[in-house]
Every structure is written in C-alpha cells, then in structure tokens.
Amino acid sequence: MLDRETCHQARLSRDARFDGHFFTAVKSTGIYCRPVCPATPPQEHNVAYFTTAVEAAQAGYRPCLRCRPDSAPGSPAWKGVDTTLERALRLINEGALQEGTLAQLSDRLGISDRYLRRLFQKRFGVAPKTYALYQQSLFAKQLLHQTRLPITEVAYASGFRSIRRFNDCFRQQIGLNPSQLRRYASPDSSELILTLAYRPPFAWDRLHRFLARRLIHGQEWLGDDFYGRTFTWRKAKGHFTATHAPRHHCFRVALAIDDLSVLQGVVGNIRRLLDLDADTRAIERHLNTVAPGLPLVEGLRLPGMWDLFEAGVRAILGQQISELAARRLVQNLVDALGDPLGDHQRLFPTPESIAGSDLAFLKMIAARRDTLRCYAEWYRDSEAPQDAEQWLTLKGIGRWTVDYARLRGISDPDIWLSGDLVVKKAMDALGNASPADAAPWRSYLTLQLWSQ
After folding, report:
1. Are residues 106 and 173 in the same domain?
2. Would 439 be classed as within a structural domain?
3. Distance CA 187, CA 148 (A)
4. Is 33 an annotated catalytic residue?
5. Which of 58, 76, 64 is closest to 24 using CA atoms?
6. Which residues of 209-247 are buried (b: 16+ CB within 10 A; e: fewer)?
7. What CA–CA distance (Å, rounded) separates 347 from 349?
8. Residue 269's CB: how many other CB atoms inside 10 A?
9. Quick check: 140 pLDDT over 70?
C-alpha cells in the first residue's frame, strides 16, 4: 500500500498513473472511487484508502457511479506478490469458479483448498468464492454502464446462470439493483463496446510498429490508432477492434462473440494482450537502476499474442530465419488451415488442424515441419497445455522458443532472451549491467533492448 500522503496528493491531482493502485473511500457517503474520479475531492479526514476494490467493498463501501472503479487497471503490485495467488486470480477471472469447484481449482494449482482459502484471507480478507462473485458483479456493472445488452444477457455474460441469483448477488455486492444503473449507460452503446483503461504513458507508436511487422492479413488488422484480430476462447469464436484514445488513457474495444458466457475471460485476455495493467513508470524506474546507460522508451508495453499455442507456432516458424520469412510462413499457415470467420476473416489454426496436415505447403526444411506437427499433436493431447516447459522434451524446440512463447503468449514479465543476438549485442554495450538484477521485469528489459 502507498503511504497516505502519496495517496492524498494523487487523488487531489487526479493522477492517472496511480489508477488502480489504490481506491479512495468516502466515509460520509459510503462510496469508494478511483484516484481519477471527477467528483469534488472530499476532505482528507473523511477519507479511507484501500489497496483493492474488494477490500473497500468488504469494509461496506459501494462503487462510485461516476468514475466506475470496475474500469480501473489492475495493479501488478498486489497481483504479483505470490505466484500461486497470481495464477489463482487469473484462473478465477477466466471463470474457474463459475465452471468448477474450489477443490478443482486447488487441484489445478497443486495446493489444498484450505491453503488457497488462507491465501485469499491473508491478502483480501475474503474467501475465493466471495472474491470471484465480486469480480463478476463488477464486470456486470461495467456491461450495464457501457453497453445496451439486456440485463438477462449481462447476467449470462458475467457468469451467472440465473437472473434471480444475479439480481440478489448484484444487490448484495454493489448495493444497487441492476436496473438502477441503466440510466447511467452510454446513449450510443448499441454495439458491444467496452472502455479499457491503462496507466499512462503508453508507447502506442512502438507497439504499432512491432505489430505491423508481424501482421497476418485476414486474422489481424491494424490502423493508425487501432488494432484488431479474430480469436477463439474455449468453444467461442469472435473478433475485436481496440481503438486507442490517448487523451482518456484507454482503449475502446468493439467486440463480436458468439457466446457471451466467456466474455469476461475474453476481455481479460484483451487487457493482457495490450498489456494494459502494466505500471511502466515503476518498471522503468527499476530498469534505470540496473542499466543507467540505457535510454528507455517511456510506456513500452509487452506485445502479446492471443494464446500460448499461437505464440509457440509462431516461435517455431521463426526459428533461425528472418522476420519477413517467418511472417510469410505464418500467413501461409493461416490461409491454408485457418477456419473462415465471415467473408474476409480467418481464425488461427487449431492444434487438430495442424496435427492432421502434412504441412507440405510450408516452404521450409522437413525437420521443422515435423517439429511443428509434433508440437501440435502434443498440444492436442496434453492435459497441461499451458506448461510450456514441457515443450523442451520435443525434438526441435529449445529454450529460446519456449521463452519467446511465454513472453508473448502469456505475457510473462520476467523472461530474459539470452540467446537473442540483438539482445546480446545491446547488453554487451552496457558494460557491467546484469540481466539478473532486472528481475522481475526482464521481459521489459528485453523489449527495451529490441527497441534501441
């Protein structure tokens, strides 16, 4: 938690760099806000500060209807304290407790459900299920504010299977009826358009340049101020276009999806793909102490891919060839094996489609085609496909491939690509700087070196 004086100054200045790091609760109104709330700031003696929204809610405060705390960026400062807790939060936000039990989630994490409950009690003061219900309610609040979806569809998209259960939970967690929020919805929100905030600065020009060099036509699209792509999420299919609004420190995301029940997980993955929850100011302050001679690009973000499987395929196809040649191979793969989505769009190929093809259309050595097919077969049959370390048992896959896939496919913030030639040369030029000292932000150091 930041010290009280820092929080006081941040809320008075409405500094967007602190958005999501803490929440301001007003004792007289029973409402909690983001530091960027446009309302008249309350007197300091009438304010309490909380690190997370769920802590403010447990203390009896309800979310503000003006600044909408449901839209605040996440805070790596509290998400990354414990690796197990961070993974539990990610799985819960993807719907693990909507589709399964606490015991099943604990098994996936490799811990007991008692220990998982203890982690949540220690960090948030609530049980995992209570945390999950509050996150579902906040997501529902975001949909009620920003879209014109019927309330029944909002309930379904937020992970509730009963409108009665949704209404009861929403009233209990938010302090209002869902219908009461409808008058605050945007008048032009007939489409499914969500606003996803970030902390400034955001180096959009660098991210745009990175994505442009690797763009796969039909699967992705890119303009001066937007990026979009097709996707699959479990059994759902869809596409999105994220338009940058730098004056408001956010992206406005237009979404189309054929199954609203997975919407919360999809939106969370878009946030990860664009690295919207990074606190680049804190990261760059740390990197400055490690490599003081390195001119840092302010607001540099990790350029994510949609999932780990796609990142692995692209990494395999990019082994020991130029960026242009790798892009051409990925384009051929998508054109040949990607399922169509509408008239002019294609999805990234599935493990099944790659495993079932001889890949003869890919103009590369036979050994690499065998590696790609073997990788797809393993991914198709594996019970733990998210464990990229297991790829090292496959012929033709080494450390660089695994690390690159983790950097982009799950946005791991602490990947050091020691085998990358550009990274090696740039690091050698810095003299005595040690990559180990850059932990836990070595992925950002890698990206900064690529950007020189």
Report:
1. yes
2. yes
3. 8
4. yes
5. 64
6. ebeeebbbebbbbeeeebbbbbbbbeebbbbbbbbbeee
7. 6
8. 21
9. yes
Pair 430, 291 in one domain: yes
- Choosing from 82, 339, 414, 420, the catalytic residue is 420
pLDDT digits 0-9 by tens, 175-205: 889 988 776 665 554 568 999 999 999 999 9
Domain membership of residue 290 as a residue range: 286-298+413-452
Looking at the structure, tell me whether residues 203 and 332 fall in a common domain: no
For residues 417 and 293, state if they share a domain: yes
- Kindly list the distances between the CA atom of residue 448 and the CA atoms of 278, 301, 441, 443, in Å, as whole numbers in the listed order: 15, 9, 11, 9
CATH number where 343 lies: 1.10.340.30
Chain CA centroid to CA 36, Å: 22
Q: How many structural domains comprise the chain?
A: 5
For residues 375 and 445, membership in a common domain is answered with: no
Lowest-confidence segment of 36-50, 169-183, 254-268 by average pLDDT: 169-183
* Whether the Cβ atoms of residue 255 and residue 275 lie closer than 8 Å to each other: no
The mean-pLDDT minimum among 73-77, 202-206, 369-373 falls in 73-77
Active-site entry in 7, 19, 33, 307: 33
Asked if residue 69 is part of any domain, the answer here is no
Count the alpha carbons within 13 Å of 315 in the hemisphere toward its beta carbon. Answer: 28
Give yes or no: residues 199 and 172 share one domain: no
Q: What is the DSSP string of 140-171?
A: HHHHHHH----HHHHHHHTT-S-HHHHHHHHH
Q: Which two tokens stand for residue 15?
A: 């500094």
> Does 224 participate in catalysis according to the annotation?
no
